Structure formats: C-alpha cells, structure tokens
Amino acid sequence: xxxxxxxxxxxxxxxRLDRYLSQILPTMSRSRVQGLIKSGNVSxxxxxxTKNSTVLxxxxxxxxxxxxEPEPLDITAEKLPLNIIFENNDxxxxxxxxxxxxxxxxxxxxxxxxNAALGYTEFVAGxxxxxxPGIVHRLDKDxxxxxxxxxxxxxxxxxxxxxxxxxxxxxxxxxxxKHPATQKGKIDAPIYRDPNNRKKMAVAPFGKGKEAVTIxxxxxxxxKHSLLDIQILTGRTHxxxxxxxxxGTPVTGDTVYGYATPTISxxxxxxxxxxxxxxxxxxxxxxxxKADLPDELINIINDLKAKGV
Length: 309
Hints:
Layout: E1 3-8, E2 15-16, H1 17-24, H2 30-38, E3 42-44, E4 47-48, E5 55-56, E6 62-67, E7 84-87, E8 91-96, H3 113-120, E9 144-150, H4 153-164, E10 169-177, E11 184-188, E12 191-193, E13 201-203, E14 213-222, E15 225-232, H5 239-246, E16 271-279, E17 286-290, H6 295-307
Parallel strand pairs: 9-16
Antiparallel strand pairs: 1-6, 2-5, 3-4, 3-6, 7-8, 8-9, 10-15, 10-16, 11-14, 12-13, 14-15, 16-17
C-alpha cells in the first residue's frame, strides 16, 4: 500500500528539496529520495515537481510525499557462497572473492554479490536502488576484501554518508611491479575518465578531474616486486591502480593499467581490501573490519620469498 507523508517547511534557510527530504526522512537514502522526486511522487504546495534541485525558500511551504511499495526486483536471488565477516540487524560485512562482480550489469546478470546477498537474506531487497540493493560502496571485480551490504535504508544512508564525507579508514594490500622511489609516499593527483579510452581512468591534467589521494608504504621488498600497504583518503574509480601505475609501479597482474602480460603467474590483480574502519549505525566510534589475504595471494608471496627474485 502507498504511504503518504506531509511536511511543513520552517523557512529558516533555503535548502534543496532532495536534501531537505533526506534530512526529514532519515530512514531513506538520498538516492531513493531523488528517485521519488524524479518519478513525480513529490509535490510542493500541491504542485508536483520532478527536479531534485527545487529550492525550498518560503516559510510554510507544504511538501507532500507519496511513497509507493518497493518495486519487485528483476534480479535473481542465488545461493552463492559468501565469506561473512560480521552481521547484525543493519549490515553484512563480506570478504569478497576476486572474480565476483558487485552488482548486475550488461554481461554480468548473475553470480554477483547482489545476487548472493539476495539469496542470503531478503532484507537487502529494495535498499538503495533497484539494481544495486544494499550496496554501500564498490570493489573492482578482481579486487578481493572487505565490502559492506546494508540491510535497511537507514543503515544504507548512515554508511554511505561516511564514505561521501571521507570519514572511513580504508587500507589495502597490493603487490606491485618494480619498487617505488621512496619507501613511503603520498600520491595527490586528480583522476578523470581517460579521453582516449572511456573504459579507463587516468591522472588528470591541471584543473581537471576529481581530487584523489593515496598514501603508501613498503611492507616488504620481494625481488623485483614490492608489497605495499595502502590507505586511500578518497574513493575514485580505479584510484589505487591508476595512481600506482602513474609512478611506475603498477599493480602486479593488472593488465589494464600495468603490463599486458603479468610479470608472474597470476590470474587476477594483486589488490586486496584488507581493512575498513567505519561507524556502525548509532555508534560514535569506528569499528574496524579485517579480511585476511586469500590463499592464492599468500602463496604468491611465499613463492617470491622462496625464489628470492
């Protein structure tokens, strides 16, 4: 059954309609609020508006919202193995395996983390969007490690806001070809869509792109490779891979930004989301979730140590 809500704007300070509704409806993610506005489910002073940028600026304006039943998903729930690190009523923390795509898209309609999450629990259905239910943030297909799935709209909004506000602490482990010029370093270089290849990202020229900051230090030198601990202060698409390639040390096994033929025997990029610190819903302190390196990456490290090259 459709639910109807009505609010009266206090007029203290002008505010965008989508931002206002996100504040007044804290159990809904901003993306869901924007979807309601675009679909004509919101009116201001009895006049429907479909613009998220509509500004509320008059005391006493009446905002009416019609909240329809969640649309049935066209995504198939699948009973796929999930390595669950933690779970409560708000979230599931998964150690994602390499090769698993985050959500359905062209060419990947099944076998994704979303398919698996729907097969594991019904609570993620309809949370945060029809095609990406429950997804709070993303990892590349061939990157393993910690990833969060929200089980309700309030948790989804709470967690996504921390990513947006850069209040999370994200650490990765990467094996790279060659060695950085310094043991520790900070790569502060904006990233944008590669104008020569729309499927890739690239370091942007001055004045273009979005801010991207990566901090690294060398944990171990393994012959012609280096094992790095990486912290990212921003979360741009392919950020670590682009940044490390830009200083001449591409992620080992990354055939997009690194060498077309991997320098060692590996069938994925050696990049793992090792830990994530974030405040859980209702908390005022970070909880840290850690995911151990998968066996195939541990075996590669041991093999490089044994060879000494």
